[in-house]
Amino acid sequence: MSAAPVLRLRGLDVHYGRGRGRRAALRGVDLDLAPGETVGLIGETGSGKSTLARTVLGLVRPTSGTLSLAGEDVTAYGPRQWRALRRRGLVSYVFQDPLRSLDPDLTLGHSLAEPLLLQGLPGKEAAARAREFAPRVHLDADLLDRLPGEVSGGQRQRAVLARALVTEPRLVLLDEPVSALDAAHRVKILDILKDLRAQGVALLFISHDLGSVAGTADRIAVLHHGSLVEDGPAREVVTRPQHPYTKLLLASAPTLRGAGGDRATRARLRAALTA
């Protein structure tokens, strides 16, 4: 018997505004994410990726549909219930920009311990656990005494990842976690993410770049204008895309020649999307 999904969305609609200014940010999204599974959520700016992430984190309330986390229906949760759920550490979020997501006046060790302090752990115990946890993301414990501005970009991103994981969440949302890193640091972070799968952590890897998740994700889900237009095994989506928008993303992806696919192919696919 397969494990119950850590994340389950059914018919999820999110609308912003009222009256004539009302617009749909998400339309009827169905998505499951199992323990130890990595799903790449792909789409251009404005496709609905951020809205979906904010909804899963309880920062946006669905207009209709249902949202379940670890079998718990949280669709109608209010702010107080969401705060309690987040403090339990069930869901964590990794921001795109590690420098902006870390307090510049706090050491890395203090930032790592902060989620544990919010859970009620005593200060010394939280600090000790943070120091023990750092090596799991290949972060030297000696760096925990430094400020974010005193370490490299790759080390900051590992600190952000450690902070998201120190509460041992069931689900981690990652917003473009490697886009600001050079190739060497990108490989290290992706290797850490692969290790998390073996530990049963579910990952929702949010990106506009299909290529950055193709080698990491088990499945790829493609958002276009708020609708999930394709969802399947990563290899199949990359090698046999079904929707014109997915084909357009693949045609626009950087190639070994350094160009973004064939211009004529991109034009033909864009025409198919607007037909």
UniProtKB/TrEMBL annotation:
Key words of the record: ATP-binding, Nucleotide-binding, Transport
Key word Transport present: yes
The UniProt record lists the keyword Transport: yes
Chain ranges of the ABC transporter domain: 9-250
An annotated Gene Ontology molecular function: ATP binding
SMART domains in UniProt: AAA
SUPFAM superfamilies linked to this entry: P-loop containing nucleoside triphosphate hydrolases (SSF52540)
Highest rank taxon of the organism: Bacteria
Family affiliation: Belongs to the ABC transporter superfamily.
Protein name: ABC transporter ATP-binding protein
Organism of origin: Streptomyces evansiae
Upper taxonomic lineage: Bacteria, Bacillati, Actinomycetota, Actinomycetes, Kitasatosporales
